[in-house]
Amino acid sequence: MKRSLIKDIARQRIARLLRFADEVVSINPEIARDCVEEALAIAKRCRVRIPRFWRRRICKKCHTLLKPGVNCRVRLRKRRSPHLAVTCLNCGYIARYPYK
Asked: How many domains does the structure of the chain reveal?
């Protein structure tokens, strides 16, 4: 198979898995975590980037799909340089994203 076709199929599967995980995260977080881990494995195996929208919604430490108000806390911070702080309530990891 062509490399571009393989990457296209991988992108579709990743998108489908992450959408399903988003629907299920409040009902059953373990299934959502399994879907996220499978999507990350597909992305790594096929060398496909996960879109920024999804990448920022996945905890880098425990691979949980973050949903504000359910399993993460979102704060705007002005210390150092202004940034958005997203705290995972499962493992405590804090992701910081700069803004202007």
From this structure: 1
Mean pLDDT (the chain, rounded) = 95
Band of residue 100 on the pLDDT scale cut at 50, 70, 90: confident
Please tell me the number of Cα atoms within 13 Å of 32 on its side-chain side.
20
Measure the CA–CA gap between 35 and 22, rounded to whole angstroms: 10
Beta-carbon contacts of residue 98 (< 8 Å; ≥ 6 apart) = 81, 82, 83, 84
pLDDT band at 30; cut points 50, 70, 90: very high
Instruction: Point out which residues pair with 68 in neighbouring strands.
Output: 72
Could you tell me if 54 and 65 are in contact, meaning their C-beta atoms sit under 8 angstroms apart? no
pTM, two decimals, is 0.87
Give me the domain span that covers residue 24: 3-98
- Between strands 72-77 and 83-88, the pairing is antiparallel
CATH number of the domain that residue 59 is part of: 1.20.5.420
